[in-house]
Every structure is written in C-alpha cells, then in structure tokens.
Amino acid sequence: MTKPFGARLRAAMDALGPLCVGIDPHPSLLAGWGLSDDVKGLESFGRTVGEALAGRVAAIKPQSAFFERFGSRGIAVLESVIRQLRGSGSLVILDVKRGDIGSTAAAYADAYLDPASPLCADAVTVSPYLGFGSLAPIIDKAQRNGLGAFVLAMTSNPEGASVQRAVAGDGRTVAQVIVDEISQVNAGVSPMGSVGAVIGATVGTTGLRLTDLNGPILAPGLGAQGGRAEDLRAVFGDALGLVLPSWSREVLSAGPEVSALRAAADRARESCASAIAVTA
After folding, report:
1. Positions marked catalytic
2. Domains of the chain, first to last
3. Could you tell me the pTM of the whole model?
4. CA 120/CA 92 separation, integer angstroms
C-alpha cells in the first residue's frame, strides 16, 4: 500500500527542501517563453517545466484553470503533465479548489483522487465554504488511497478576508474553525497528517493557532504576488516546520531554458530554507 501523502511529503521536504513550484501557464508566461497561446504552447511549457523540476523540488502544483481554458485538449495536456511528473516520482498537488456536496463532491474525488483516473494527483486543493463536512467524500477518498487534500483556510487574495476573518458564534474566526477541523482529521498521525491548510504567505499576522494542525501548510503568494521568504516567520511562527512555500511566476519567468528554471528554483528553495531555519 502507498505510504500516506503526509509521510511522503514530509520525506520530500526533508530531502529536497521546503519548496513547491507551480505550473501556471499564464498567456504572458507563454509569450515570454516565445510560445503560442494555444495547446501546442501549453504542451511545450508543461513538458519543459517537468523536465527541469521533476524530482528536484518537494512538490509541483499545476493550476488546472490554465489547462481547462483550452477545453478537452487542454485537459489532455494536464493529464500528460501529471503522468510525466508522477512517473518521475514527483509529488503533484493539483490546484483545482473544488468543493461541493454529496454525490458531486464524491465525483470530484473520483476525478482527482482515484488511482484509476488519468487526472489522479497526490493531493488537491479544496474549498470548505459549503461547510467543512461537505469535504468528507474527498477527504475519505484521499485517505483510502494514500493521497491528500489542502483546504483553503486563509488565502492571499484580499477579497478572502471578509469571509475567512469573520468571527463565528464561539469567537473563533472562520479560518480558525477550518484549521481546527483539519487538526481533528490529522490527530495522532505521524510524522504528519495528509490534510493540509492553504494559508497565504502574504496575509501577515494571522492570529491563527496552528500548534495542533499536524499537517502541511501550503503557502502561496511568494515572488510575483509580493510575498517574501523572510515574511514566513511572521506569518507562521512556531508552525514553520510544516510550511511548504509555493512559488510560481517568479520561478517560471526564468524559462524556457531548463538550466535557468533549475537555478531559479534553487534560489527560491535556498531563500525559504534559510527563513524557515531561523527558528527550526
């Protein structure tokens, strides 16, 4: 049986350092690489990022939307990228931010967390804002298959604050409620649970209690979105050891040369490792 995602991610972070690199083929990035904004350009972009980074960073995070915009042919490219990366031993976090109820949530689980699916990843991002319990089919499927899920808790977009920092009836913020629900799923798991939280690297002081989370924290927003590695300590405090910083455009813009992409990823990893080691 496959080791749980949390254990595999912990091992990858320890061996390769704390870094997740996104595959976000924005039209501007395709143009910057001299590629056409079509399926052919998409294929070349995904293949090059895979060649450059597969097996060299702890995780790679394709953003599904940038493949979906090309319809079925774009999804076929996404399937190929996932297959290439997982075949190389890389952990793939598919950024899809799905969330629904009942049979629809179960169908999303079948799409992304069933080893028989061509879109199966090691973990997916999910939204809990139909209620954390609505994610049960996704979390259950992930755990049965040794896979994982990252639940949106406090995101880097400014619009999120009106919901995520709102105060529930018991005095906790909505984001804290989500973190506490994740903590219950991960309780007692060693070395780290397979259900993580998404907390933006640009959110500043969160006020969140993360000591019981016992799961990975995906921290997007570094680089082009304004987050700096040195900000991680202020955002995550004593939970730094759980943090998987995520960089996308700042690393990807170094392409299309494989050596340049690798060098950019190395710089990002070194800056994050240095920041996290301050209190390690």
Report:
1. 97
2. 5-274 (3.20.20.70)
3. 0.96
4. 9
